[in-house]
Protein 1
Amino acid sequence: MSSSGYLRGRRISRRSAIRSAGLVGAGLAGAALIGCGDSDEVAESSSSSAATQAATQAAAATQAATQAAAAATQAPSGGPKRGGIGIAQSATVYESFDSQRTVASPVLGITSHFQNKLLRFTNPDKGEVTGDLVETWEQADPTTLLLHLRKGVKWHNDGPGSRHPAAKPGREFVASDVVWNIERQARGTLEDGTEASFGRNAYWGKIASIDTPDDYTVQFNLNAVDATFIQGLANEFNYFNQPELMTAVEGKHTEIDAGNVIGTGPYILTEWIPGERVSAVANPEYYMDRPYLDGFVWIQNFTDPVAYRVAFEQKQVMSFTDPDPTVTLAMNQADPDNTNVRYSGVANTVACYTNTNLPFWNDNRITRAIDMSIDRRLIIQQLHGGLAKPSGPVTWIQDAWAIPQSDLETTPGYQSGAARDNDLAEANKLWQAAGGPDHGDIEWTIAKLWSDRASWAITPDLISEMFNTAFNTSQFKGVSKTYGEIIPSWFAKTFDPFFAWIPNIEIPDARADMYSAFHSSSASNIWSVNEPDKIDKPLEDSLAEFDYDTAYELVRGVQDFAIENGQFGRHIAYNYVVPGLRWNFLKGPYPEDPATMWSFLNGSLWAHGQWNDTDDPSWEGVSQPTPASL
């Protein structure tokens, strides 16, 4: 049984978008799947030649897409092959081993290989799902969802996690496991009653009660009709922990170690040492005839692009992206017979944040002034060479729900030319009226994970100069801070203004994201927005609406209202496109378009579907590391 979350197909071809890059100043965006966790999604350009470079990249992109299409149509001999090791990039720092508490996708790149969800995406961009821990499901009525669990799914019977004294290795996954995982997130506390941050708290809070008629049946009784709920079960944050083990270790969730986790997934995690090594081996008792690979090794972030490039050229890693996308395209052009390029859109939206919970920043005039003064197209050209497209409160990636680009071009904060001059004039009036010049120095934080990337190192100066120019001042100072500093202050609502990725867009149906960000009851409403009539009711009505046009108009009204109010401090800027280079032997669950990759997180797809074509000529000379053994 499967389901699609899109009510009407309005997705645009990413290839068509790539070909249009450079035609509209901002160029075209695509999506990088890993966002704040990937070290490779960096672009660099010279402001004096930005337009030329964007056009050049567009031509190169078309050529690379043609080459990718040719490579992709070469049928692998004999279909998927078994054996070998998968190699992926990952971060050097993880803030939690608990996928339910992480706010960063690097953790999910690991957990997606050793844990399961209730449902998983077969096409994450369209919201199409299939059963995972659940075998079949049925909508008994608009607020009742009945899930039939897959029998015989067992928690890993080997590996470091299974040897923890509290673990229950080999135990069958049953209905009580579902209840425990959901209730801890919905209530927002650990087993001992300690309050904790769970990013999906609002999502699971939609369940009024859970019934378990037997060990293999789970009934969700929702508080209200929610047309997006099914998609949410498959999002990349909803992996399931073993209650016995997690209860014992959840108080030290930042102490990353393979011995603190256990799963039911296709791989068994054997080692997780941040900054050194992460590895896993195939689960011999997995419920389906997967994975194809014998094991997986995650290479820690390449902070030196040159070292990363050399590692790819020596086939020590299977894929590559560079801070400068022209480098990636040039490498493909240098070896078109053995490599291919695919374009992916960044599911982590880029945004500026102001803290409307604090004095000065809680003045709506300041919020609107900041939003109108952000030069989205300047940032896109400076950091991405035009390979990006502005996003409104709903990202352009969720295009069935987004404000069309033609409308954004006439929206304050998104305009160019003389219209932007008018925006800046209005922003200055608001800034002056709210006492902006008297506020003193303003430190604007850039996430260190962002500014540490060579071609984005200019960001602290770029952002501070953008605001100083807009307000004819020298008050703004760019600084860098780690996510370890930013995230706690984020949840405490004490954060300083900053520029970085927004947490992952989790599903293509944008109604859930809008509810999470702006509904007054949502724990993710960091800005403490409280608009019962203008926001809460329209969003509630849209979630209960199965007619697309009606639902879209409701969401569009909330977006327009948010922009009128400077997006309440959640200043969405843009989403960008990254060309990724792969050796031809790397096979996996690609989209139908041979030039594109998924926009949304898709770790479970790769965990189940990646394989190495050892008969492909590009396989010669491949380095195969050995994962830590069980």
Protein 2
Amino acid sequence: MTGIRGVSIEPTFKRAALTLSEVEKLINKAGELAISIEGKRNYAIIALIATTGLRTIEVERANVKDLVMNSGGYKLFIQGKGKDDKDLYVKISKDVYQIIMTYLMDRNDDLEPLFITHGRNNSSERIRTRSIRGIVKEILRQIGIDDMRYTAHSLRHSLATNLILHGNGTLEEAKQILRHKDISTTQIYNHSLARSQNDGELKMSKLLFKGKGR
């Protein structure tokens, strides 16, 4: 094995982030489809992930009792990655809280999971990550985004990217929301933004071709 180099793994994300307008289109489309109980559930899931950056496994593990309201507003306590207890939480806006409550009131049951299945053969079971990924992927297709780089996890990346780009958010805020252990992980979003805003190639082309339209 002497002299054989290992495969290098680039420290970049394998899922692309949606623009702010694309996230809005996704949420609006989910809202348009929120007619049936299943549609209302899907709307609640997408609104929740888009505004909190939750991982699909965290959405799967969420229970109704984890959603609380106190003087500080609405919170959803979660079992984070590699955690055994639900000692972490994300803040829920009033808009998202109402979307979730509309779904729960329509459901009208005493089941523990926050989100359940509504199929004919497996109704009332805790929804699984595979189904959550499928829900997001299908609605992405319906707004014209059918690309393997865009998944449910893209909404997590989109939160950090758009928070920094449009919401005057800081890296530290993004780190806390996404619950990264090391800010160097969050720093990747800054690098991605810097790359997208760097038009050096286009500027050089303009200098070389002097506006000839090539």
Protein 3
Amino acid sequence: MADAAFHGVFPYLVSPIDAAGEVKADVLARLCEHLVKAGVHGLTPLGSTGEFAYLSWPQRRRIVETVVAAAKGRVPVVAGVASTTIADAVMQSREFERLGCSGILAILEAYFPLSDDGVFEYFKAIAEAVAIPVVLYTNPNFQRSDLGLPVIDRLSRVPNIRYIKDASFNTGRLLSIINRVEGRMQVFAASAHIPACVMLIGGVGWMAGPACVAPRQSVELYELCRRKDWGAAMERQRPLWNLNQAFARHNLAACIKGGLELQGYAVGAPLPPQSPLSPEGVEEVRRALQAIGAL
């Protein structure tokens, strides 16, 4: 797909894996088709909801290959690249670009703490390895080495690092990023933020797991925000936020996979040693989906 500005709703896709460790490509392709027809603006495999940390490289590659084929160039595919080493991250990025991805969601995994220079060099190397746009991913709740404002500022000056997806719980941090980068980088929200609020302060959309189970409702909310109809947007936002809160009380991948199972997608349970959604969790997700008309 030709390079264009990323914006709108990018569902973080789940990774359906069978008992033998094979990617359930037919299920994933059907889910992608449903999401595209619901009007989403892009697809993001191998985000947190995609359980990237639990997948082998062949599984990751197969998932991205499947999503690119299912998208058929109708929407951009921004694939997650995560590693502890620069060499491996560069290899993944180049392969995903070769497979036809429109962008890279760059994720830093770390065992030992890293200096700001080390963090900068990791993301810079990914950006320099490919010609497609790079989205930085930051999640201080789970990452051992996170992106601070000074590093974000430096990275915003690398030509094809054009976006950042922030999964902190601090919406003020997003405004600080927007102020600091002065338009060189655009901000996507995560499910930890209230999307309408992020759009109000200058965000361009959100990359989030809940959009997998509520794509139509998410797109409607985005369109209201884009038109700056904030009153109507908040009316639509309130029940959707209840869905996000339900997911926040459980393992995110388990919740999204549980919700998709309720909707008829045989995506299975999270990969062990993660636990599947409890019976109580299934009922909570069922109620949340029913409340927004997604079940």
